[in-house]
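User: Predict the full complex structure for these chains.
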Amino acid sequence: MKVPVVTEILKANDQVATENRELFRGAGVGVVNVMASPGAGKTSLILGTLARLSDGIEPAVIEGDIASSIDADRIAEEGVPVVQINTGGNCHLDAPMVRAAMSHLDLTEVNLLFIENVGNLICPSNYRLGEDLKLVIGSVPEGHDKPFKYPGIFAGADVVVLNKDDLADVFEFDHAEYERGIRMVNPDVEIFRTSCRTGAGLDSWTAWLEKRLAALGTGVGAA
Amino acid sequence: MHELPATKGILDVALEAAARAGSPPILAIDIVVGELTSIVDDSVQFYFDMLSRDTLAAGARLRFRREPALGRCDECRHAFEVRPPLTRSCPGCGALGLSVTGGQEFYVESIEVADEGARGNGDPEGERPGSD
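Assistant: Here is the predicted structure of the two-chain assembly.
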């Protein structure tokens, strides 16, 4: 006998994600879920963004890693509150992990939170955390074919940053091809090109981020 | 390895549905998986067999229906099924402008449970090895 069900398999995660989002909203915190493959420059882009934030923006970072606190240490050196989540081999962060990490942050002192996901282009895309924006970072050495091979993560992105763009000539990177692959699954997504090494593109990316989070009604820009 | 938590989700959804139906043993679970979600069927069944031991779903078969994403050519409007890696040009006319939608499904569509008469014998299909 068949019993119809039609229930999302990740609904338990989604429910916690929705609660997280309400908690963040209540505290006036704008949240960015940062996803990319290992080595694309997640931590570097976060650091580059932190250095360019307008006055009045109080950032914090949740660092997800399989093990180690190398990235969290880099953030802490900048004097920014940071919480490390070690997933113990798990390939992505989920909403309950973020909930647990939240209790280590004073959200009343913060209005912008970056959550650096585990380096991976597959698994993180399926798990909402309670974020306002999903940021996917690509990087030039990965090649311009990545949107064609990993369409799922690009389809869900609110914004894509192509990092290490100073290397585009070396890698014969085809920007048109890359952006075409992204727009195939996500026609209106914002795409930026940056180099965390030279700083190129970071000003316009940071300005866009602040404007977008303010427009979404988060605490960013509200003061 | 995100199949493990995903499998836990499948088991939880199926057990909840069975509880609502009066807690019959679960024989099979029908799952819809979009082609852009990167879920691997074999891994899920492997984890499921471990996780479902000592539950109503022990021994249940997972039946996957894979839903392709839908591609459409911006030029000739040709529509076609899409699986990763994405095609770079329209299979109809060769144009480069394509739109891809869907392929993100991941839900339990239905469960198959033992009919009332068969409940409780743990062998609802009558195919117990060595029983003949």
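The domain at 11-211 of chain A is CATH 3.40.50.300 (Rossmann fold).
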